Amino acid sequence: MNNENTLPDQTISDVISAVTFDANGLVPVIAQQHDTGEILMMAWMNADALRETLASHQVCYWSRSRQSLWRKGESSGQIQALVDLRWDCDGDTLLAMVDQTGVACHTGRRNCFFNAVRDDKLATIAPVEIDPGSLYDT
Amino acid sequence: MNNENTLPDQTISDVISAVTFDANGLVPVIAQQHDTGEILMMAWMNADALRETLASHQVCYWSRSRQSLWRKGESSGQIQALVDLRWDCDGDTLLAMVDQTGVACHTGRRNCFFNAVRDDKLATIAPVEIDPGSLYDT
C-alpha cells in the first residue's frame, strides 16, 4: 500500500492467504484514523470484503447482522478511504489505517469507543457530532 | 478510571454488565499505547479477566489457546498498566489504553501489526527489539 495505485491481483491473493479467518470465515478489523491514531471502530471482514477493500481502497466489512457485504458509508456517506492495511503476528487480526469522512459510529459520534468510567460511574465521554437520523434517512 | 484509585466493586460489576460477551464468553480487546496512539495488539477477555484488569490496573487477558487467565507480562515482564478502559457503542469490543513496558508482541516487536504490503509485496515493517528467546526463558 502506501500509495493509491491498484494492487496486483496476486498481491491481494497473497494478503488473503496470509490472513487466518475464524470458523465463521471472518477476521476482526480495527479501523484507526491514520494521522491522529484515533481508534474509530472494530468490525469484521470475510475474504470477499478484504479483497474488495484492497482492490477499491475503500473499506468494506462483512455485516454479521445482515449477513452481507457492508460497504462502509454506502448509505451514510461516512466512508473510510484505506491508507494502509496491516495484519498481526498470528494473522488473525487486521489493522486498517483509514481516512474517515465524517463520523465512524452509527450514533453520530466520531468513534465507537465513547463509553468509560469517570468518577466511579459509567459515562459517555464523546458528543454526538452528526444527528444519526440524518445519516440513514437518505 | 483516569486515576489509579481502586474502583468500587459495584463499578466493576457495572462495567461487566455493560459488556456483551460472545457465545464463548469472550470479548475482543484492543490494546493501545495511551500516549502515542500506537495499536499494540488485540486479544480477548472473559468476565474474570475484565474484573481482574479493572481491580488490579494491570491488563489480564483470557488465553484461548491455554484456556486460562493470561496476566500479560507475568512471565515476560512486558506488562501493560491500564490507563483507561473504554467500550464501544454495541458493548462488544473493549479498548484498553495502556502503558506498555517493553514490547507487546511475543516476536519481540513493539506491536503485533508488523505485516503490510510494500512495493506490491508482503513485507515486515517493524524490527525485532528484544530477542524473543530472552522474553520467555526466564
Please give the radius of gyration of chain A in angstroms: 16 Å
**CATH superfamily caption of the domain at 9-104 in chain A:** Phosphoribosyl-AMP cyclohydrolase
CATH architecture of the domain at 9-104 in chain A: Roll
What is the arithmetic mean of pLDDT of chain A? Answer: 95
CATH fold-level assignment of the domain at 9-104 in chain A = Ubiquitin-like (UB roll)
Instruction: Please give the share of residues in helix of chain A.
Output: 10-25%
* Cross-sheet strand order for the largest sheet of chain A: 2-1-6-5
Oligomer: homodimer
Shape of chain A: globular
For the sheet with most strands of chain A, the description reads: 4 strands, mixed
User: What is the highest CATH level, the class of the domain at 9-104 in chain A?
Assistant: Alpha Beta
Identify low-pLDDT runs of chain A: none
Strand content of chain A: 25-35%
N-end to C-end Cα span of chain A? 33 Å
How many DSSP E strands of chain A? 8
Describe the structure.
The first copy, chain A, is α+β, with helices and mostly antiparallel strands. Chain A has a domain at 9-104: Ubiquitin-like (UB roll). The first copy, chain A, has 3 helices and 8 strands. In chain A, strand 1 and strand 2 (39-45) form a beta hairpin. In chain A, helix 1 (9-18) packs antiparallel against helix 2 (47-56). The longest helix of chain A is centred in the first third of the chain and has 10 residues, at 9-18. Chains A and B meet through helix 1, strand 1, strand 2, strand 5 and strand 7 of A and helix 1, strand 1, strand 2, strand 5 and strand 7 of B.
